[in-house]
């Protein structure tokens, strides 16, 4: 794994190497075993543990490769998700004016601007429990979509309308969705 031909060259081998390392007991147990087993160890004992567990420089290279490639996964999910959604959400004759496929702040106000609508996309698996950061981001996106001064309507794509409506009501302190100043653009599908 010393030299890489491309950014993901050797990825399969790297995953296999790290999987074999933690397969028997799991990552947490393996780390806990090393921590307790190396208390009071000298350099020779640490070296023997590295050799025994196979965590030398090649293993570090494998972990760094996976870290580098996986650091780009959010961008890939965002771009591929939007591209796959577009054929299903664009009306006949509707045209893309601006598109922001990169995840995160790209300097563009919306992920999608068409000649008719604007849209933001989120691709996430809701886990339940406390998710206030995700909820705050979702609320911010909805707010900007419905309060944008434009003739374009906001496009809201989501699977669980009831949850999003409840979130909007909770964040706004209202019993109904905020529509003041938005006209019918404030209506969520």
Question: Keywords, please?
Answer:
4-stranded mixed β-sheet, 189 residues, 2 domains, elongated, alpha+beta, 4 strands
Account of the 3D structure:
This protein is of the alpha+beta class and 189 residues long. The protein folds into two domains: 11-70, no CATH class; 73-186, no CATH class. The protein is 49% helix and 7% strand. It contains seven helices and four strands. The chain has helices spanning 11-22, 27-37, 43-53, 57-70, 73-89, 132-147, 161-172; strands spanning 96-99, 112-114, 117-119, 153-155. The chain has a four-stranded mixed beta sheet, with no helix packed on it. Helix 1 crosses helix 4 (57-70) and helix 6 packs across helix 7 (161-172). The radius of gyration is 24 Å and the shape is elongated.
Written as H for each helix and E for each strand, in order along the chain, the element string is HHHHHEEEHEH
Proportion in β-strands? 5-15%
Evaluate the radius of gyration.
Answer: 24 Å
Nearest-integer average pLDDT: 76
Query: What structural class do helix, strand and pairing data support?
Result: alpha+beta
Name the strands of the widest sheet in spatial order. 1-2-3-4
Separation of termini?
A: 51 Å
State the share of residues found in helices, binned by percent. Answer: 40-55%
Shape: elongated
Main sheet attributes: strand count, strand direction, barrel closure: 4 strands, mixed
Low-confidence region ranges: 157-164, 174-189
- In DSSP terms, counting alpha (H) and pi (I) runs of 4 or more, how many helices? 7
- Please, what is the oligomeric state? single chain
Number of domains: 2
Number of strands: 4
